[in-house]
Amino acid sequence: MLRQITVIGVPMDLGADRRGVDMGPSAIRYANLQGKLQQIGFEVEDIGNLQVPTPETYEIGDTKLKYLREIVRVNEELAQTVTSVMEKGGFPLVLGGDHSIAIGTIAGVSRLQKRTGVIWFDAHGDLNTAETSPSGNIHGMPLAASLGWGHPDLTNCAGDGPKISPEHVALIGVRSLDEGEKRAIQENGIHVFTMHEIDRMGMAKVVEEALHIVTNGTDGVHLSLDLDGIDPNEAPGVGTPVAGGVTYRESHLALEIISQADVLTSAEFVEVNPILDVENKTAKVAVALIGSVFGERVL
Questions:
Q1: What does pTM read for this prediction?
Q2: What is the mean pLDDT of residues 80-89?
Q3: 13 labelled as ligand-binding?
Q4: Residue 98 sits in which domain range?
Q5: Entry's CDD domains (predicted)?
Q6: Does 13 qualify as catalytic in the annotation?
Q7: The domain that contains 211 carries what CATH number?
Q8: Is 222 annotated as a binding residue?
């Protein structure tokens, strides 16, 4: 893994209904992100936050694709920023913000890696489109958009068409899927490791299988981690909590195994919402997990 990490904050909350997730990047930084990474032995460059408009200053627009234009604009800037970091030999670590920012992160990575594997750590599938989404919130659509499914403004954001392929994607920790997402998974053969598989197989086996999927015929792997993948008892500060999630111990084990595989070329941590948190607990969990991604160990 590269020893230069570039932190990119994206205080996006246009893709979600719950306000406060725009403060996620600041909360993660406040939980001593930079100190943690430097302690492990990395050089850290924090380039600050991208500019994101506030919902009050814009119209929602199409209720099936809320704030579409503004979300696309921010993601196009994010994609260019991610590409620039990677061109200079750095590792982009993106802090959200809601999960709609994954559209830009993956688009930026895919400009340099034509075949990118993706580990999607999340309670949800994020595979909705305008036609299947119950809410019209774009933070439930980023994986679909990256796969080339949905509204052309999203699928063509920062580059025409699909950025990744279904056979190179593995979802971990899923326990809430809409009906349209279930159909998309079944019809396209996407690998999903729900909490059922984690309970039955054990996290180590799940991650080993996921790594085989995302590294088979790819040039690098992107980690997209939504903090709602963690059980809400341990990470309460998220907008869409789902009971029965991955434990703190399981999540560290998963990320340690991923780290040891030495295949990651980019990562993002999203959906930390300080307004819904308790004493910045979820941001602290995020920083601890980031430590595991970058090689921190007990011994």
A1: 0.98
A2: 98
A3: no
A4: 4-293
A5: Arginase
A6: no
A7: 3.40.800.10
A8: no
